[in-house]
Design a protein that fits this description.
By secondary structure, the chain is mainly alpha-helical. It is built from eight helices and no strands. The chain is globular and about 50 Å long. It starts with a helix and ends in a 7-residue tail after the last helix.
Length: about 170
């Protein structure tokens, strides 16, 4: 696989995965670029071409964790980090505020722990199997199922307390 094919095939889904985790468009763009560069430098070591997708998501997820940890001025609780990320979402010029339901859903996602958010976004948006997510996150499928269940419940609860849409989820 050459670099152009790699970029064409994975650039957009990787960008959205990263964006859902770090929120900020500029940060997502930078992390995407670093993900693709790291992948390109190491592509020759990848034995199975069919494993490219999971491998790319593993790199991107790891870089997102690094980014979030590096930009914390002090250790933050899950709630404090959620507030910071929601603040970034609300101040972003790349958000269409006409889509109230989508914004509310994004806020519900940001109220999750980092682990829950990663599992939920990979399963819900990227439609990955628990086995694929386990390779990316280095977790067991059983723990991922529990994380996904808790994430789904927390999103439902968040939506129920913040609007009438919660019944739809």
């Amino acid at each position: 696989m050459d670099f152009n094919t790699l970029v064409k095939q994975y650039q957009e889904p990787l960008y959205w995965h990263i964006r859902r985790l770090v929120v900020c468009h500029e940060d997502a763009r930078d992390i995407l670029q670093e993900t693709l560069l790291q992948a390109w430098r190491s592509l020759h070591r990848l034995r199975e071409e069919r494993a490219v997708r999971g491998w790319l998501y593993k790199i991107a997820t790891h870089l997102c964790y690094q980014h979030l940890n590096r930009h914390r001025k002090q250790p933050l609780s899950t709630e404090d980090l959620s507030e910071v990320l929601i603040g970034r979402l609300e101040s972003s010029s790349f958000v269409d505020y006409e889509q109230g339901e989508a914004i509310l859903f994004q806020k519900a996602l940001l109220a999750l722990t980092e682990q829950q958010r990663v599992v939920f976004t990979l399963r819900y948006y990227d439609e990955m199997s628990y086995e694929e997510i386990a390779e990316i996150t280095r977790s067991t499928t059983a723990s991922l199922r529990v994380s996904y269940h808790h994430a789904s419940q927390r999103i439902r609860d968040y939506l129920k307390t913040h609007c009438d849409y919660g019944e739809k989820f």
